[in-house]
Design goal:
The chain is mostly helical and 75 residues long. The protein has a domain at 28-62. It has helices spanning 2-17, 31-34, 45-59. The radius of gyration is 24 Å and the shape is elongated.
Length: 75
Amino acid sequence: MLLKRALSIIIFFFALSGCKSLQPWVKPHQRGILADSIMAFDVDPASAKYMNHVYEAREAARGAESGAGGGCGCN
């Protein structure tokens, strides 16, 4: 009984110590590295936007790749 209680207290404190982090994960001096163009999903954003428009027109799937939207799907 004493062992079970001690083990639960230890587990509680380990779980509580994981919530202590108040510092941001990305430091200000690291943001420049993460904002590099190599980190972008699309190499050419203008080309990706055009291909997305072509996909929407061809598949009649306007707004299917984003979270918000709705309506008739007219251009």
